[in-house]
């Protein structure tokens, strides 16, 4: 049986500019980048729903980290690209840059997690006896706020619950150790975090910036973790900065 394809949205732009591919985080969608995309006129953009999420929910037969990385490389294809990853999407982007450096010309990684560190909070790590339902509900309330799950419609709850398997896999990534070696990332990387983000997200970003061979750091001062949604103007500036670092 043929496995369902991933959903990919492509937006035309200047053919002389590198293509920019957006990679979303856990329990998110490609369209969370749309407000940012509207502010990136002239750039060729691609965004997709990662395996197990959104319009790629049916493509979830295997949605562990290695499969997410393979999916991204397939989307990149033969033309090296700029990768912009938010949260878990940042880890996917950095992994791709480490394993297939010829396919990645620059990376923007905004608040990727690093759960292999002892200081990463346990609240993001699923318990062995937690059901997918519990994981989805708890994640939603930690991201949006207490009581948020009960305020969304049953239809939306059902959509999120179908993503429980993908979410569990995302939250278990890196528990056994780092998933890539930073020294193998030869492309320029711009790490990013919000000025109002949690201490552990900021620490994760700053440690990545120190470990990567060619990294700089940008802070979106007024934002928190969801800067691509809440501050699209500033996030678009962040993306343009990443593109400006592509080697000539």
Task: Label this structure with key terms.
10 helices; alpha/beta; single chain; Rossmann fold; 248 residues; globular; seven-stranded mixed β-sheet; 7 strands
Summed up, what is this model?
With 248 residues, the chain is an alpha/beta fold.
Topology:
Elements: E1 8-11, E2 20-23, H1 34-37, E3 45-48, H2 65-76, E4 81-86, H3 88-99, E5 104-110, H4 132-144, H5 148-151, H6 154-161, H7 164-172, E6 189-194, H8 199-211, E7 215-220, H9 227-230, H10 232-244
What does this structure look like?
This protein is an alpha/beta fold and 248 residues long. It has one domain: Rossmann fold (3-Layer(aba) Sandwich). It is 37% helix and 15% strand. It is built from 10 helices and 7 strands. It has helices spanning 34-37, 65-76, 88-99, 132-144, 148-151, 154-161, 164-172, 199-211, 227-230, 232-244, and strands at 8-11, 20-23, 45-48, 81-86, 104-110, 189-194, 215-220. It has a 7-stranded mixed beta sheet, sandwiched between helices. Helix 2 crosses helix 3 (88-99) and helix 4 crosses helix 7 (164-172). The radius of gyration is 17 Å and the shape is globular.
